[in-house]
Prior knowledge:
It comes from Kytococcus aerolatus. The protein is α+β, with helices and mostly antiparallel strands. It has 2 domains: 2-228, BirA Bifunctional Protein, domain 2 (2-Layer Sandwich), CATH 3.30.930.10; 238-290, SH3 type barrels (Roll). It contains 8 helices and 14 strands. A 7-stranded mixed sheet has the order 1-2-5-9-8-7-6, sandwiched between helices. A hairpin with a 6-residue loop joins strand 12 (262-267) and strand 13 (274-280). The two termini are 34 Å apart.
Amino acid sequence: xxxxxxxxxxxxxxxxxxxxxxxxxxxxxxxxxxxxxxxxxxxxxxxxxxxxxxxxxxxxxxxxxxxxxxxxxxxxxxxxxxxxxxxxxxxxxxxxxxxxxxxxxxxxxxxxxxxxxxxxxxxxxxxxxxxxxxxxxxxxxxxxxxxxxxxxxxxxxxxxxxxxxxxxxxxxxxxxxxxxxxxxxxxxxxxxxxxxxxxxxxxxxxxxxxxxxxxxxxxxxxxxxxxxxxxxxxxxxxxxxxxxxxxxxxxxxxxxxxxxxxxxxxxxxxxxxxxxxxxxxxxxxxxxxxxxxxxxxxxxxxxxxxxxxxxxxxxxxxxxxxxxxxxx
Length: 328
């Protein structure tokens, strides 16, 4: 893997991407088994440190959901992303200036996962805020967890990907199964290929995010939001937003804002008419579910019963990145 990252660094078109890939290669730590890669990475959040494991025994998800990982079937990896471009220490003032847009980081990491799976031959999209699903069938293949590290100078991005099938579990979907369904062979080194492509694309998307947050040109932000919106499986769809306390908001998902929050147009429960717009941060939403009894343009993935691809965090310390761009 280190040789592959070094080779990608040498071919990278942008020097910041090259530097990130080289730093990842030098900071790569692989384990046969860990309770979870995320706390290991958070304990020493050096820029571009990569912690991966063949088997996670206690992977956790958003709002403390479980993520089950059968040995050697999937990817479990955490990458420390500095809150500025490059791989060196981040000045506190620069890091603070980017905090309000940290909520875009999980979406950028989700976009990197989507790109890596496309390179493997599987087309996917990003379900707001942290899931990666197939574009046909809406099968969940991956999830993303981002947590702000101590000092708020970096974000640790955890990614889980279902690469190989797990026994006879009908609720589990994997990259290999999607390839077989499309009459394409799954190479023996599929896990390694997906991980290498994932780290490569994380470096690219992080560089883009860093440049946008450093820019005063609103066009660059609009371009990034447009790119993220283009791969969204949520925008334009009818959804039910489940809020803490049991409140459910029926709405049409309209846009992403600069903090990564979801902008929706609420639908009146009494009349069914679309009404005012509201903005919802990831930390304020328990579930985003399909509006099952509504007329809408296409399906929005419901939260699947199977927990294996759930990757997110408990809402306590360390703090999870919310759509507001600040810790939830």
